[in-house]
TrEMBL record:
<feature type="binding site">
    <location>
        <position position="136"/>
    </location>
    <ligand>
        <name>substrate</name>
    </ligand>
</feature>
<dbReference type="InterPro" id="IPR002139">
    <property type="entry name" value="Ribo/fructo_kinase"/>
</dbReference>
<keyword id="KW-0067">ATP-binding</keyword>
<feature type="binding site">
    <location>
        <begin position="213"/>
        <end position="218"/>
    </location>
    <ligand>
        <name>ATP</name>
    </ligand>
</feature>
<comment type="similarity">
    <text>Belongs to the carbohydrate kinase PfkB family. Ribokinase subfamily.</text>
</comment>
<feature type="binding site">
    <location>
        <position position="240"/>
    </location>
    <ligand>
        <name>K(+)</name>
    </ligand>
</feature>
<keyword id="KW-0547">Nucleotide-binding</keyword>
<feature type="binding site">
    <location>
        <position position="286"/>
    </location>
    <ligand>
        <name>K(+)</name>
    </ligand>
</feature>
<feature type="binding site">
    <location>
        <position position="284"/>
    </location>
    <ligand>
        <name>K(+)</name>
    </ligand>
</feature>
<feature type="binding site">
    <location>
        <position position="180"/>
    </location>
    <ligand>
        <name>ATP</name>
    </ligand>
</feature>
<comment type="pathway">
    <text>Carbohydrate metabolism; D-ribose degradation; D-ribose 5-phosphate from beta-D-ribopyranose: step 2/2.</text>
</comment>
<comment type="similarity">
    <text>Belongs to the carbohydrate kinase pfkB family.</text>
</comment>
<feature type="binding site">
    <location>
        <position position="246"/>
    </location>
    <ligand>
        <name>substrate</name>
    </ligand>
</feature>
<dbReference type="InterPro" id="IPR011611">
    <property type="entry name" value="PfkB_dom"/>
</dbReference>
<dbReference type="InterPro" id="IPR029056">
    <property type="entry name" value="Ribokinase-like"/>
</dbReference>
<feature type="binding site">
    <location>
        <begin position="245"/>
        <end position="246"/>
    </location>
    <ligand>
        <name>ATP</name>
    </ligand>
</feature>
<dbReference type="InterPro" id="IPR011877">
    <property type="entry name" value="Ribokinase"/>
</dbReference>
Amino acid sequence: MSVLVLGSANLDLVYDVDRIPAPGETVLARGFASFPGGKGNNQAIAAARCGADVRFVVALGRDASGDRLAEEARRAGIDLRDRRCDAPTGTAVIYVDRGAENSIVVDSGANALLTDLTAAERDDIADADVLVLQLETPLDTVAEAVRTARAGATRVVLNAAPSADLPPGLLGDADVLVVNEHEAAALAGLPAGADERSLLAVLTDRGAAAIITLGAAGALVGVPGAAPVLVPGHRVEAVDTTGAGDTFVGALAAALDRSGDRTPASLVDAAAFATAAAAIAVRRKGAVPSIPTLEEVLDFRGRH
Ligand code: ATP
C-alpha cells in the first residue's frame, strides 16, 4: 500500500511586522522565521505522519532552500522523488501584521518546471495505490498524472486548490475530488455562498465522489446516487487554521490507502479520520509543525 503525492513545495518566509508596508515604504520586521510549505509538501507530510508509505514527486531548485525542503521531507519519512531544476525553489514571502492580517507573494520557481513526467515518475504513479494532486504545479502535468493513474488501478484524490480553470476531463477522471466551499462554488459555476448540498450535487454529477470541507463545521461527503453525509467537525479551540485543508487531504489519503476499500462507507470513515486530524492541526500554530501523527489522531478519536 502506498500514497504518491505529486505537487508543490515552497519555503515560506514569514515576517512579523507592525503593519504591512504601503507602496514605496520600508518597515522593520519584529521577527522572521522560515518554514517548509506548499500544498504538495504539506499533504505529503500529513499522509506520512498519518501512517502512509509516501512518495513525493516535486521540483526543487539547486539551492539551499531546496536542500532544506528535501531534508525535512526525508526526515518525515518520505521517499522523495525530487527533480532539481535551473530555477530557484518556490518561495512564499508572507507579512503578518499585529492584527494577524497577512499579505503574501508567491514565486512558483521550480514548481512551474514540473512538466512532462518521466518514465520513472509514471511507473511510480502506476505502482501507487493512491495518487494525491493539487493545482500549484502545471495543470497539464496534473492531467497527465491523472491519465497515468487511470490507465492502471491507482485511485486519484484531486484537491482542486487553488481555484483554476481545469483542462477538460480532469475533474471527471478524479475518483475523489476535495475542495473547500469557495473552490466548490467556483468549480460548480454557482455563486459564492451557495448551499453546500447544491454544490455537492453538481460536483458528484460528473459520476465520482466529492468532499466539500466546511471549516469548523466538518466535511460533506458525496457519492453519486447516494444522499450526502455530513461528517461533523470537532469542537476545538482554533489557534491557527493554516494548513487545515492540507492536513485533511493528506490524512484522507492515508486513511483511504490503509483501508484499501472503495465503498462509500469507507470514504465516510476516511473523511472522519481526516476531520479529526485537521481538528488537531488547528489547535496548534504553523502548517507543517501542527500536523498530527497517527497515534495522536487515534488517541483524539478515542476521546471525542
Ligand atoms: P486552509 O486554507 O485554512 O488550510 P481550507 O479552506 O482548505 O483550509 P477548511 O474547510 O477551512 O479548508 O478546513 C479543512 C478541515 O479542517 C475542515 O473540514 C475541518 O475538518 C478542519 N477545520 C478547519 N477549521 C476548523 C475549526 N475551527 N475547528 C475544527 N476543525 C476545523
